[in-house]
Write a structure and sequence with these properties.
The chain is mainly α. The chain has a single domain (about 15-205, about 220-435), classed as MFS general substrate transporter like domains (Growth Hormone, Chain: A). It is built from 16 helices and no strands. The chain has helices at about 15-50, 55-80, 85-105, 110-140, 145-175, 175-195, 215-235, 240-265, 275-295, 295-305, 305-320, 320-325, 330-355, 365-390, 395-415, 420-435. Helix 1 (about 15-50) packs antiparallel against helix 4 (about 110-140) and helix 14 (about 365-390) packs antiparallel against helix 15. The radius of gyration is 21 Å and the shape is globular.
């Protein structure tokens, strides 16, 4: 199989490629540490400001709305600019947002609406940073190394965000919101400085076959790029069902977990945790996720990638019933470990498949298109979950979300098998071979 280290003719040496990937991985780790601090603190800050389920449900809406509104366009931008530079600029903007949050907390003007505004701005920076970081991976490693590279990246994300960052965020809430935002801002500044070293002479711009030369041609080319990415997502035999299933499953999971803090925290909750205990409970997700990231890729290939992924989805969805049936910290913690492991294994497989069946030059656009659909459903899931919880109760919401996730998994299992993936990969290899002739 052809080794592809980057999308330009002058590939870096092996040593340089390893150094660049390590820098990328370090940036991912520190960036997700800051994300974890924010993610661990925001639900606790929100329930300290209000216990209204609908208002609590608006928090995930603020976090995912930019993906609905801008992911498609940003995906095109990612494919047309230096991805490393774009990522640094987005992280610099994120540091400014966090600094504003610290200022609001110190000035004692932090309300639920101000918190929602900060979440919205934070997510806008995440949109640029995450799409750029994801699209860079095939430019840093060989194609056959994608499963291992994705496992390391995703494992690092989960470790730093959920296992390290979220407990820190929960602890900083005790000291005050200013510590939460200020501490996260300091970490992001470190990431920006670190990623300043992630450079190579040819940059990290994807190859374009027909570069535009005038402003009019550029505008037309952007529209064509958007249409090309969306057309691939809607017509691809692998990407389309994966995207639909992810959109519907993430809707169910977001509605579920946006209300989970009300089920778990406070004297009137079913579990009865103290606020500082909640991030620790959620952090066990990453223990399972880290274990999942260590599963050798050869085991997955031997068992069948798609078969393993679908099996993980079924287990992951069914375990959502545990907090309803056994609302104790030990039962929920055990379930979360397995949820984290199966989620990680399936995400690594899904990402690696997408990177193998989608042309490298289209990864930003297709990533934007898929995330517009996937994260767009998550933007409306929080308020829907809040309304169901307020009118019908939390148990009804949790059981309904579980049933929905199981049905969606059964639907995609009936449409995609390993043969479909293998044929799509072979078709892309043939297409790329013709392009080099």
């Amino acid at each position: 199989m052809q080794r592809i280290l980057c999308n330009v003719s002058s590939a870096p040496s092996l040593g340089a490629a390893i150094r660049l990937f390590r820098l990328h991985l370090a940036g991912v780790g520190l960036g997700n540490l800051a994300d974890g601090i924010v993610a661990g603190a925001v639900p606790l800050l929100a329930i300290a400001l209000t216990r209204d389920p609908v208002l609590i449900g608006l928090v995930p809406t603020a976090l995912w709305l930019p993906w609905l509104l801008g992911a498609l366009l940003v995906g095109a931008v990612v494919d047309r600019t230096d991805r490393a530079r774009l990522r640094r600029l987005a992280l610099a903007a994120r540091a400014c947002v966090l600094g504003a949050g610290a200022g609001a907390a110190l000035a004692d003007v932090l309300t639920i609406w101000v918190l929602l505004g900060l979440c919205l701005a934070y997510a806008a920076t995440e949109l640029f940073s995450d799409l750029a970081a994801s699209a860079m991976i095939p430019q840093l490693v060989a194609r056959e190394d994608l499963p291992r590279a994705n496992a390391r990246v995703m494992g690092t994300e989960r470790l730093m965000q959920e296992f390290v960052g979220q407990p820190i965020g929960g602890a900083l809430v005790i000291l005050g919101a200013g510590w939460v935002f200020g501490g996260a801002a300091a970490v992001v500044v470190l990431v920006v400085l670190l990623l300043g070293r992630l450079r190579r002479p040819e940059g990290f711009v994807a190859q374009r076959s027909t570069p535009a030369t005038t402003a009019t041609e550029e505008a037309v080319s952007v529209r064509q790029d958007l249409a090309e990415g969306l057309r691939l997502v809607l017509s691809h035999p692998v990407v389309r069902p994966f995207t639909v299933s992810a959109a519907l499953t993430n809707f169910a999971n977001t509605a579920y977990f946006s209300m989970f803090v009300l089920w778990a925290v406070g004297p009137g909750s079913a579990v009865g945790l103290e606020p500082w205990q909640f991030p620790i409970l959620v952090a066990v997700l990453s223990a399972g996720a880290i274990a999942g990231s260590l599963v050798p890729s050869r085991w997955v290939v031997r068992a069948g990638e798609v078969r393993v992924m679908i099996g993980c989805w079924f287990v992951n969805s069914a375990l959502l019933l545990v907090p309803v049936l056994v609302p104790t910290w030990w039962a929920i913690g055990t379930a979360l470990v397995f949820i984290g492991a199966t989620n990680m294994v399936s995400n690594v497989i899904g990402s690696s498949i997408r990177q193998r069946v989608v042309p490298a030059r289209l990864l930003g656009r297709t990533g934007g298109a898929t995330r517009t659909l996937i994260f767009g459903t998550m933007a409306i899931a929080g308020p829907v979950g809040g309304l169901v919880a307020r009118e019908l109760g939390l148990p009804t919401l949790f059981v309904g979300a579980t049933v929905m996730a199981l049905l969606v998994t059964a639907w995609v299992a009936a449409r995609v098998d390993q043969g479909v993936v293998d044929r799509a990969e072979a078709a892309l290899a043939e297409q790329e071979a013709r392009s080099f002739v």
